[in-house]
Structures are given as structure tokens and as C-alpha cells.
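Input C-alpha cells:
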């Protein structure tokens, strides 16, 4: 994923905000990320279909694993860019738009509400632990992936999607101010294309971003 220009995103801190309207300022208007001029800002032109397809002679689980590591690192990095703005006061719930609020299930299977930064910290820590687990993602030659690897991946992709959805709904204005909307749009289109290609997300999981996904499908950026 070298097309993301990662070096440009490091060392970014809180900056003085120019007069870009907040995505929550006008509730009757579509969110900023659905405005055509912003949505069409991309680093990669055309469809992601060829990028996500399983290469010839490549093991499926290896391909899934390599891309999952990359998506995790990139989404973690993008959240780091907006983390100064994602505080308990600013984001008291883990939301993705006015109609979606996510809850966390603890080790006792209890459902609890968390502020977005707490929720995301839990998610990223849990995924990092899973990625580092040799029993789940083996790195030694000849080691087999577990039989339930797909169910593990589906959980990971569902949580990573929620982080992206929260960034879009709650922090897109910060990305515009930093002029990196093209970066996250390309990441999002790539992530969704990959998840669709290998059936890693259910339609209901993608509901908070359904309008943007539909727009990218119309534009031929995401090809089912």
C-alpha cells in the first residue's frame, strides 16, 4: 500500500482549525464525506478489484493475513492522526452517525458503553494481541492456520470498520483540515473492496457507511 504516502501522516498534532464547517453543524445536510468533491478525492484512480484479488499461486490465508496486518497498521495510524480530537468529552460514545452506537462486550460477556477513545483503545489492543499470537497467525514455515481463522478475521474486520466509520462521522473535518481526505478515502475503498471480495463483512455491519459505499460502487471504485 505504498500509494498512501505514509511519511506525510507522521508527526501531525493538533492544529488551529480553518473555517471548514463541522459535519455536525448542519444536521439537515449530508455529512462532509458524502459531498462529491470530498468523496472523489483519492490517491488511486479506478477500481480496487485488481488490487484485492488473490494472486495466482498465493495461499488464501497468507493473503488474508498480510492484508489484515496492513489494514490494521494503516487504520491505527489514521486514528493516531485524529486521536487528539477524539476525547472522552468530544466523543462520549462510540458512534458512527446519529443512528449507530457501538457497545463493548467484556470478558464476562457484559455489554458496556464506552467513550470512543476507550472503545478504540480496547479494539486496537485486542487486535494487536491476536495478530501477535502465533497460534492464530503463524509465521514459521510449514505451520498451519487454525480452522476458525475466517471467523477470527470477520470479528477483526467488523471492529476495524467501526473505527473507520467513527473517523468518518466524527473526525472527517480534521482530515479535511489536514488535506488527507484522499488518503483515507483510498484506504476505505481498498478496505471495503477487500472485505467484499472475501466476504469478511456483513451488509448490516456496513450500514453506517452504506451511502458512501453505494456511491463508490456507482463510480466503479468498489466493484462487488
Amino acid at each position: 500500500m505504498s500509494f498512501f504516502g505514509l511519511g506525510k501522516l507522521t508527526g501531525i498534532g493538533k492544529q488551529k482549525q480553518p473555517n471548514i464547517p463541522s459535519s455536525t453543524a448542519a444536521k439537515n445536510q449530508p455529512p462532509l464525506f458524502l459531498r462529491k468533491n470530498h468523496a472523489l478525492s483519492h490517491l488511486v484512480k479506478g477500481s480496487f478489484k485488481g488490487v484485492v484479488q488473490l494472486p495466482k499461486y498465493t495461499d488464501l490465508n497468507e493473503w488474508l493475513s498480510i492484508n489484515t496486518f496492513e489494514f490494521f497498521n494503516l487504520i491505527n495510524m489514521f486514528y493516531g492522526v485524529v486521536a487528539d480530537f477524539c476525547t472522552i468529552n468530544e466523543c462520549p460514545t462510540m458512534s458512527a452517525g446519529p443512528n449507530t452506537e457501538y457497545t463493548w462486550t467484556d470478558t464476562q460477556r457484559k455489554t458496556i458503553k464506552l467513550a470512543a477513545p476507550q472503545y478504540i483503545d480496547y479494539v486496537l489492543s485486542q487486535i494487536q494481541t491476536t495478530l501477535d499470537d502465533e497460534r492464530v497467525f503463524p509465521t514459521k514455515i510449514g505451520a498451519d492456520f487454525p480452522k476458525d481463522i475466517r471467523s477470527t478475521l470477520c470479528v477483526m474486520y467488523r471492529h476495524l470498520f467501526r473505527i473507520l466509520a467513527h473517523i468518518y462521522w466524527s473526525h472527517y473535518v480534521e482530515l479535511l483540515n489536514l488535506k488527507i481526505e484522499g488518503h483515507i478515502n483510498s484506504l476505505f475503498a481498498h478496505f471495503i473492496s477487500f472485505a467484499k471480495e472475501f466476504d469478511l463483512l456483513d451488509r448490516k455491519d456496513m450500514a453506517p457507511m452504506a451511502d458512501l459505499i453505494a456511491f463508490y460502487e456507482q463510480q466503479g471504485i468498489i466493484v462487488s
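Confidence is low (pLDDT under 50) at residues 10-26. The first strand starts at residue 94 and ends at 95.
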